[in-house]
TrEMBL record:
Gene3D superfamilies documented for this protein: B-lactam Antibiotic, Isopenicillin N Synthase, Chain
Protein known as: Fe2OG dioxygenase domain-containing protein
GO molecular function list: dioxygenase activity; metal ion binding
Domain Fe2OG dioxygenase: 182-287
Family: Belongs to the iron/ascorbate-dependent oxidoreductase family.
Pfam families: 2OG-FeII_Oxy (PF03171), DIOX_N (PF14226)
Species of origin: Eucalyptus globulus
Keyword Iron attributed: yes
Length: 336
């Protein structure tokens, strides 16, 4: 099976997406399907990825347990400057031009675990994670760390197919200077049972493209994710994506768009609430902190010169996170 069809929801068209089988021995076909998806929308499904259904279900169970805690308990784990920990409702505003408050979602960031006394912890997106107490949520940390590790491995496999689709060597992105010590982040997300109203600026998550390299997304069976295959269109045309248990959705971020000189486009997407609670788990893969994001040699020519100046990964990522998240001083003043 090479594509999957979403169900039409509330009159919004459904999307057809390519399926990339990571167990397939036909690498040419996988590259062809992925390249078509990246040129078309920057969004595709990944199947036979090696993450067990039992582990995926366990992570969703544990996610629900955390978000089911009283707000006072969750706020004890409020995110820090390293973007580790809990993000409350409205903490993030992804589409400020069209949102009245912010995203009607809460989340939890988990990154690469780096001890406080490790020199790497001085970097902006490295450091120790914030973990709920084992007394309150037993086995929570173990489940998250296991899933985080396996999702990172899946993402790295996908980067090999992306490299081939860009006429690069398969291991191009696995070079020590690119993904030797990547900024890899797991984010649990919970959308309350709110009905979105785009005409009033109310969204589960505002329209945006992800900031980094690639994103791996696991969802429950509640619809809500919408994608826009042409973010330059006026007006934007949105399509629902069918939630599929056990299958990861994958979409491209802005760094890959910059790397590929807009040959591959980052995916514009949003979440529209329909009155049902919804849970999802995003795994973000970004390069090393000091990796320079600049036009790839296979993506430029005299007719198509580089469209973006080079920029360090950590600089770009920090700017985008700071632009979309609330200032932590807001919470400090509220707690004073």
């Amino acid at each position: 099976m090479d594509d999957a069809n979403a169900v039409d929801v509330a009159g919004v068209p459904a999307s057809t997406l390519n399926l990339i089988d990571l167990s397939s021995s036909d690498i040419r076909r996988s590259v062809s399907l992925l390249k078509q998806a990246c040129l078309d929308s920057g969004f595709f499904y990944v199947i036979n990825h090696g993450v067990s259904q039992d582990l995926m279900e366990e992570v969703f169970v544990q996610s629900r347990r955390f978000f089911g805690l009283p707000l006072s308990e969750k706020m004890k784990l409020l995110r820090n400057e390293k973007h580790r920990g809990y993000t409350p409702l409205f903490d993030q505003v992804l589409d400020p031009a069209n949102q009245i408050n912010g995203d009607y979602k809460e989340g939890y960031y988990i990154g690469v675990e780096v001890p406080e006394d490790d020199p790497r912890a001085q970097k902006p997106h490295f450091g120790p994670n914030l973990w709920p107490s084992e007394d309150i949520l037993p086995r929570w940390r173990q489940a998250m760390e296991k899933f985080h590790c396996q999702a990172l491995n899946v993402a790295k496999v996908v980067t090999r197919i992306i490299a081939l689709a860009l006429d690069l060597e398969a291991d191009f992105f696995e070079k020590p200077e690119i993904l030797g010590e990547p900024i890899a982040t797991l984010r649990l997300l919970h959308y309350e049972g709110l009905v979105s109203d785009p005409f009033k600026g109310i969204y589960g998550a505002g329209a945006h493209s992800d900031f980094g390299f690639i994103t791996l997304l696991a969802t429950d069976d509640v619809p809500g994710l919408q994608i826009c295959k042409n973010k330059d269109a006026k007006p934007l045309k949105w399509e629902y994506v069918q939630p599929m248990r056990g299958i990861h959705s994958e979409y491209l971020g802005d760094m890959l768009e910059r790397w590929s000189n807009c040959i591959f486009r980052s995916m514009l997407h949003r979440v529209i609430g329909n009155g049902q609670e919804r849970y999802s788990i995003a795994s973000f893969l970004e390069p090393n902190h000091d990796c320079l994001i600049e036009c790839l040699p296979t993506c430029m020519s005299e007719e198509n010169p580089p469209k973006f100046p080079p920029i360090q990964c950590q600089t770009y990522l920090s700017q985008r996170l700071d632009d979309t998240h609330a200032d932590l001083n807001v919470y400090r003043r509220e707690g004073a």
